[in-house]
Design goal:
The complex is a heterotrimer. The relative contact order of chain A is 0.09. Chain A has one domain. By secondary structure, chain A is an all-alpha fold. By secondary structure, chain B is an all-alpha fold. Helix content of chain B is 83%, strand content 0%. Chain B is built from three helices and no strands. In chain B, helix 1 runs antiparallel to helix 2 and helix 2 runs antiparallel to helix 3. Chain B is elongated and about 60 Å long. The longest helix of chain C is centred in the first third of the chain and has 31 residues. Classes of the chains: A mainly alpha, B mainly alpha, C alpha+beta.
Chain lengths: 144, 96, 114
């Protein structure tokens, strides 16, 4: 009986990983590929770790599997968020069929304001400084 | 060598997931080679880390050597560091 | 921060972890279904969601939780921490999407961390 549960967990986990890989190939732009990876691949890893704990029910295996699960759960959204932020700032082209992009609207509005301002150079420098400070905060998100 | 010969269904599941994960690795390779931008390729790094964790787990199930879970822990940590390093690098390159 | 009982907080945290796991499973199934079917279903977009949480921990937890709910992924945060820009995969109704994040996720986080 137990081996059936283990087999089903193992196969479901690897199928979720296959789904994530198909998503990476098939989805149209970076953000949607990240949707596929942060969700499907981490669930696949969790299922497979549960399988290995059921197969070898020892303390060491349980603790290490729990560590991997915690790392995957807590770090994969943060990593995806940072890559998404920087790729939106790099102006990576978005796919077709977007309904709205309010972040791009906000950036356009700010750059229009900056162009409309009197002293272009100083505002440019300030905004650069602001960006640096924000990056410093972002690394704090790794504290969790 | 294998510790799973007593359970045919488990044996099947192990080889099935080996095959699935290998196909997934090739899908990731395709995206790595044709990805139009640099973030696409970084995203593939994340996927490949998950796939390698899966492969390690399948190998543990095949051989019974639970020591290899340490490798999975190390990979799960390293890929996060890699993500942050890539994000910082891209941002710095963007600011210049 | 009002001194709610410590054990009440811990109890809510445990409930929150179970909720998080449930969201993870649901979102994975959702994304899997979407990938395996033709992509006519998708209406992607990036929405600005206003937040009014104060502590850093609460905001980080909210960002994490948003990235784990079905079809949404945090992209950026405004410099004054008043808005979060969320990439959504199924944006049929913007108001409903924002309302869901505000009621389901933010209140839950506020009860624990804020």
């Amino acid at each position: 009986m137990m081996e059936w549960i283990i087999s089903i967990l193992l196969m479901t986990g690897s199928l979720f990983m296959l789904v994530a890989a198909i998503g990476v190939v098939k989805l149209p732009d970076v953000y949607m590929r990240m949707h596929a990876i942060t969700k499907a691949a981490s669930l696949g890893a969790i299922l497979m770790l549960a399988a290995v704990f059921l197969r070898y029910p020892q303390w060491v295996v349980g603790i290490e599997a729990l560590m991997v699960v915690m790392f995957v759960i807590f770090t994969s959204p943060i990593g995806a968020h940072m890559i998404a932020r920087v790729s939106h700032r790099m102006k990576v082209p978005i796919g077709d069929g977007y309904v709205m992009d309010e972040l791009q609207d906000e950036a356009d509005r700010q750059s229009a304001e900056r162009a409309g301002g009197k002293s272009g150079e100083t505002t440019e420098g300030q905004s650069g400084k602001k960006d640096g400070g924000k990056g410093g905060e972002k690394i704090d998100t790794g504290k969790l | 060598m294998t510790s799973t010969e007593a359970y045919p269904i488990l044996n099947f599941a192990i080889y099935f997931s080996f095959a699935t994960l290998t196909i997934s690795l090739f899908a990731g390779l395709y995206r790595l080679l044709t990805g139009p931008s640099l973030p696409d390729r970084i995203v593939v790094m994340d996927l490949v880390a998950s796939l390698v964790i899966g492969l390690i787990i399948t190998y543990i199930m095949l051989t019974g050597q639970t020591v290899y879970l340490n490798v999975a822990v190390a990979i799960a940590l390293l890929v996060f560091m890699g993500n942050i390093a890539f994000a910082k690098y891209l941002k710095r390159r963007l600011d210049q | 921060m009002k001194p709610i009982g410590f054990f009440v907080r811990i109890f809510r945290l445990v409930l929150f972890i179970f909720y998080y796991l449930k969201e993870l499973v649901l979102s994975s199934l959702f994304v899997a279904y979407d990938i395996l079917t033709p992509k006519d279903l998708m209406r992607p977009g990036i929405v600005a969601v206003p937040v009014d949480l104060k502590s850093e921990t609460a905001i980080i937890a909210l960002v994490n939780l948003i990235s784990m709910t079905p079809g949404s992924l945090t992209v950026d945060m405004s410099p004054d921490k008043k808005k979060i820009y969320v990439h959504a995969m199924y944006l049929y109704d913007k108001e409903k999407f924002i309302h869901k994040i505000k009621t389901e996720l933010e209140n839950r986080i506020r009860l624990i961390f804020d």
